[in-house]
Write a structure and sequence with these properties.
This protein has a single domain (3-136), classed as Beta Barrel (OB fold (Dihydrolipoamide Acetyltransferase, E2P)), CATH 2.40.50. The strands form three sheets. The protein has a five-stranded antiparallel beta sheet. A two-stranded antiparallel ribbon has the order 6-9. It is 17% helix and 43% strand. It is an alpha+beta fold and 173 residues long. The termini are far apart.
């Protein structure tokens, strides 16, 4: 558990970290989501280390920064708790709680870390290109239906949300 992050749970804070590489995770509406690995995460105000690494989904603002391995960035983010692990019955990987950085804003590059990042940079850019080239390119509100691993050519529209039932509070007002 990241005890230093636990102390500022729920608080939006300015952080400074080194971008190490891109990664990917499976998405709900798209096949892959681009992620980023930040290492040596510190508070920007005093330089106190809060965690050795943090994975985050790379949104539009991260993509616009055109990050390369070794870039030092500053960002505002909220610390939040999440559950990790697979099940209570799984002895090797049971449920447990950890802390992460979420809802990042105001990202800026502030410098470059010392060291050789050429090997990481090549792997990172390959992952980024793979995720971007495998993007399904569908307009918003469309999903692909997958049957036994095969993609269908015709995207299906997302069904409308179900109608909400009235609660007791609806009748009181």
């Amino acid at each position: 558990m990241r005890h230093d992050l636990k102390a500022i749970d729920g608080v939006r804070t300015r952080f400074r970290a080194t971008f190490q590489r891109f990664g990917k995770k499976s998405g709900y509406k798209v096949r892959w989501l681009l992620t980023i690995l930040l290492v040596d995460v510190k508070l920007a105000s005093d330089g106190d280390a809060v965690t050795d690494h943090a994975w985050m989904t790379a949104g539009k603002q991260f993509k616009d920064l055109e990050l390369h391995s070794g870039d030092i960035i500053e960002l505002d983010a909220r610390v939040g708790m999440y559950q990790k692990g697979y099940s209570e019955d799984d002895e090797e990987n049971p449920f447990r709680y950890d802390y992460r950085l979420e809802r990042p804003t105001r990202m800026v590059k502030v410098g470059k870390a010392d060291g050789d990042f050429s090997d990481l940079e090549k792997e990172s850019q390959e992952i980024k290109e793979h995720v971007e080239s495998d993007d399904l390119g569908l307009p918003p509100g469309k999903i692909f239906v997958t049957v036994a691993g095969d993609r269908l050519d015709d995207p299906a529209p997302i069904p409308p949300p179900p109608k909400r039932r009235k609660s007791l509070l609806d009748y009181i007002n």
